[in-house]
Amino acid sequence: MGGDECVIVVREFDPRKDLASVEEVEKRCEVGPSGKLSLFTDLLGDPICRVRHSPAFLMLVAELSSTKEIVGMIRGCIKTVTCGKKHSRNSRTNDPMEPLPVYTKVAYILGLRVSPSHRRLGIGLTLVRRMEDWFVQNGTEYSYLATENDNQASVNLFTDKCGYSKFRTPSILVNPVFAHRLPVSNRVTLIKLSPSDAESLYRRRFSTTEFFPRDIDSVLNNSLSLGTFLAVPRGCCYTQRSWPGSDKFLSAPPESWAVLSVWNCKDVFKLEVRGASRVRKTLAKTTRIVDKLLPFLRLPSIPEVFRPFGLHFLYGLGGEGPFAARLVNALCAHAHNLAKEGGCSVVATEVASGEPLKVGVPYWKRLSCDEDLWCIKRLGEDYSDGSVGDWTKSPPGVSIFVDPREF
Asked: Which of 5, 127, 360, 378 could disulfide-pair with 74, CB 3.0 to 4.6 Å?
C-alpha cells in the first residue's frame, strides 16, 4: 500500500501491548466539529467492551510495518438471530399454523476507526475485508452494521466499496434522567420477571421478530441485565405475589400487557457531550438545581452530560392489546427511576421506525435519532432456510429486536 512506510499489517488486537495505542487512535478519531456539540465515548480501558458479551468476537488492528504504529482498528461479533418466519404443520402447539422463527448466523461490525493522518489509503476497506474473512470462516451468512445516516464517508465506504446495502432505519429514542422521580400510573401493576420467565415469554411471543437472538437466555442472565418488567392493568388477576409464570400467563393474558428489559451500559462505557458553550452549560445546571430544590414540581431538567455519564438501555420492548402503549409508558417511567437510582443521566432504546408501541416511549427529539441506518451484506450463497430467501431484499417488519450487547 504505497511506499514501504505505508505497508499495512492487519493482526488481532493484543491487550497487553496495544491498549495505549488503540486509545490514542480513538482520541484522534473523536475530534468533533469546531463550535458544535459532539458526543465522545469512553470505553473505560476496555476496547472490546461492546462485543465481549457476544457468543464470538474479534478485534483487529492495522499497523504500519515500518514503525509498528497502530493506525486503524475494527471490531466484529457473531451470533444467531431470527431472519424470518415460517409455518409448520408439525407444530406441537394447538395451532398447527403458528409461525416459527427462521434463524441465520449473522455478524455485526462496529468500531471501525482509521487515524485521520492515514485516511484515503484503503486501510478501512482492508480492515472490513479481513473481518469479513473471519466471518466467512465461522460460517456467517450475513454481515451488518449501524451508522449515522449523515455520516457520508462511512455510508459510501460500506455501500459503494464493500457491497453493503441500506437495510433498516430504526429510531434511537433518548430521554434524560431528571432530578425528580417519574410517577408510575396507579392504574398499572408492574411485575419483575425471573430470567427464566422472561426467556419463556420472549421466546413464545417475540422469537419471530427480526434480529431476535437465539441465545436470549445468555442476554437475560448476563450481569449487565438489570431485569425484565411486565406491565398489566391494575385489577386484573396478575400481581407480583400471584404471578403464575409466563406459560400460564400467556395461556390467559389480560386484554393488554407490555414488557421491556433494562441493560446497564454504565458499566460498559460512558459518554460525554463536548463543545457546549458556557451559557448552555449554565442553563443546564440551573434546571438541575431548580429540579432538585423543587422536585414536587416535576420540572424537566437537563442532566449533567458535559462530563462523563452513564446510561441504561431498554431492550425487548413489546406488548399486545389496545392499551399496550400506555403500559409501555408506565414501564419507561419505572426504567427512568431505576436509572436515577443507578446514577445514570439518560435512558435510551432503539425500535423499528414503524413500531406501533413507539408512541408510548417518552424521549427528547433533540437527543434522539429518527433514522439510524443499518446496512447489510450477504456473505454466503447457501441459506439456513429457503423460505426466507435473500434476507437483504426482504421488506422491513413492524418490529425489530435490538441486542443490548451491541448498542
From this structure: 127
**Domain residues of the chain, as ranges?**
4-167+374-388, 173-270+305-367
Indicate the burial class of 84 (C-beta count within 10 angstroms; 0-12, 13-18, 19 or more): buried
Q: Between the CA atoms of 388, 390, 394 and 396, what dihedral angle is there, to the nearest 10 degrees?
A: 80
For cell 454481515, the residue is 143
User: According to the model, what pLDDT value does residue 66 have?
Assistant: 87
Q: In whole angstroms, what is the distance from residue 45 CA to residue 20 CA?
A: 9
Please give the grid coordinates belonging to residue 390.
435473500
Instruction: Give the integer Cα–Cα distance in Å for 357 and 401.
Output: 13
Cell numbers of 217, please?
A: 437466555
Of all helices (H) and strands (E), which one includes residue 188? strand 188-193
Mean pLDDT, all residues of the chain: 91
Instruction: Kindly write down the DSSP assignment for every residue of 159-210, as one continuous string.
Output: IIIS--EEEE--EEEEEE--SSPPPPPTTEEEEEEPHHHHHHHHHHHHTTSB
Asked if 184 and 335 count as a contact pair (C-beta separation under 8 A), the reply is no
Fold (topology level) of 4-167+374-388: Aminopeptidase (3.40.630)
CA distance 296 to 181: 9
State residue 30's pLDDT score: 77
Beta-bridge mates of residue 181? none
Domain 173-270+305-367 class? Answer: alpha beta
Find out whether 114 and 123 touch, Cβ atoms under 8 Å: yes
In this prediction, residue 389 has a pLDDT band, given cuts at 50, 70 and 90, of confident
| 293: CB partners within 8 A, 6+ apart | none
Pairing of strands 225-233, 188-193: antiparallel
For the stretch 225-274, pLDDT in tens is 999 999 999 999 899 999 999 999 999 999 999 999 999 999 999 999 98
Residue that is written with C-alpha cell 409466563 in the block: 246
Angstrom distance (rounded) from CA 201 to CA 245: 9
Residue 382 pLDDT exceeds 80: no
Please state, in angstroms and rounded to a whole number, the distance separating the CA atoms of residues 236 and 94.
Answer: 25
Stretch 54-80: mean pLDDT, rounded?
A: 95
pLDDT the model gives residue 331? 98
Tell me whether domains 4-167+374-388 and 173-270+305-367 share a fold: yes
Judge whether residue 127 has pLDDT over 70: yes
